[in-house]
Amino acid sequence: MAEMDSPTRLLREWGGELGLEIGADGALRAELEAYEAWWRETGQAISESVDRAGTPPLRMFDRFGARVDEILYPPEYWTMLQQGYSAGVIWRIFEERSLRSSYQIGYVTSFFDSGLYCPYTVSMSTAIPLFKYGARDVCARFLPRMMARDAGVWQGATWMTEARGGSDLGANVETVARREGERWYLDGDKFFCSNVGAELAVVAARPEGAASGVRGLALFLTPRLREDGTLNYHVRRLKPKNATRSVPTGEVELRASEAYLLGTTEAGIYLILEALNLSRVANSVGSVAVAQRALAEAVHFARGRVVFGKPLIEQPLLRAQLEERTRALKGAFGLAWHAVELLNEVYLEKPPYSERYHLFRLVAHLAKYHTAEFAAQTSKWAIEVHGSAGVLDEFPVERLLRESMILGIWEGAPHRQILDALEVMKRKRAHERLFSELGEHGDANEVRDLQARVNALLALEQDEMESRGEALFRELAGWAARALSR
Questions:
Q1: For 158-266, CATH number?
Q2: CA angle 54, 59, 64 (to 5 degrees)
Q3: Which CATH superfamily, name and number, covers 269-484?
Q4: Per-residue model confidence as pLDDT tens digits over 111-151
Q5: CA–CA distances in Å: residue 465 to residues 415, 459, 472
Q6: Do the beta carbons of residue 202 and residue 222 sit within 8 Å?
Q7: What is the pLDDT of residues 434-460, one digit of tens each?
Q8: Under a CB-based contact definition with an 8 Å cutoff, are residues 123 and 54 in contact?
Q9: Is the pTM of this model over 0.85?
């Protein structure tokens, strides 16, 4: 059974076994190990303190009555947050022209604090659309600030969700974009804005006169400050979440807020989905790290707890459960990192996309669905291993379960992953490429049977296909995870 207590070791060992281009020797390996060491020596204590403190206060006005909307983080929070930016969670993407290093930094981060990976993720999902679609002068103005390696780094955020929900963007986005000459201005309210203290956000809005539905949406870059230095939008309140406390989430009021169009108004929905898919893959990577941490905590406890005359870890039933969970973790690991590898091939593509891009879309949905559920179930199981100690907030597994519950919701709840995957299979036949590439790793009869059942499902009328889709989608995700871990 593999040792679970080190994220960098698992990246190196399993990455090598599965033929993935992660955890390799060289400078990054040494830097990841140093990053992990910092977390063990310093970061964990800060993370626990921030989590126990809960939602930080929001100071809306200064002493003279001017609106400032300042989040009063503890100073140690910035110390913790700065580590990942310095390590290269953003700047390495552009220097290396690759996403691999960024996702590996995210994996180590999530092992110790999954909530902190959110600021890094949404910063990535801001920087890449800015790089790909921003006007030259807009990129020159903002992108270097996001690539900084010191305390002056700017953060990003992705704000799509409004009060009526986030899954049906076409119906629920009511923020309006108004153009005056060469300038754009946004008016509306965003309801669930993670990393709300960021200096930049990419925001979904509907230009005046645009079509209804998703085809009428566009994506805008919105700075925290106007060109004259005043606030560009207001934070109505911070949300007292019961899940991830190391990233502030709030409600934002956009009132004639200055914004910069990314790409074109006609292609907005594609840009929005690109940003969401970057985050979905990060969610999958973070979910696997949370599951690894839950296994590590369970092993640590089982080695120390003596029951019926011998350590808990020597009890046959628990030993069998640990081995089963470890095998399942390897499958989740393989599926998440396969999504990373596919994304790394296609993330610079622009519409119209290649067949390879649509394969990535399918794998991203499978990985998001499978790994988020696995993280939650493994965290729940770790609490059961701990018994009564597991539900106490002074020990780490309670937090793991609490934080894992949001992994299934971020960037689309499970039903969203199922419906979007059905769409890319039915319209783009992405499953055919998936079976072609992974089929050799499994039993040929099993693969043929699964492919036949997927094709039969896709041939149904839309309502029936959707109503019957989850069980087969779950099976497809599990099959892919097993195939990728062999």
A1: 2.40.110.20
A2: 165
A3: Butyryl-CoA Dehydrogenase, subunit A, domain 3 (1.20.140.10)
A4: 999 999 999 999 999 999 999 999 999 999 999 999 999 99
A5: 13, 8, 10
A6: yes
A7: 999 998 887 889 999 999 999 999 999
A8: no
A9: yes
Domain range annotation of the chain: 7-146, 158-266, 269-484
Between the alpha carbon of residue 356 and those of residues 74, 118, 159, 384, 461, the distances in Å are 44, 27, 28, 42, 27
**Pairwise CA distance, residues 309 & 315, whole Å:** 10
Nearest to 337 by CA among 117, 93, 14: 14
Tell me yes or no: is domain 7-146 CATH 1.10.540.10: yes
Q: Which of 34, 27, 42, 28 is nearest to 6 (CA)?
A: 34
Hey, what amino acid is at 434? L
Burial per residue of 319-353, b for 16 or more beta-carbon CB atoms within 10 angstroms, e otherwise: eebbeebbebbbbbbbbbbbbbbbbbebbeeeeee
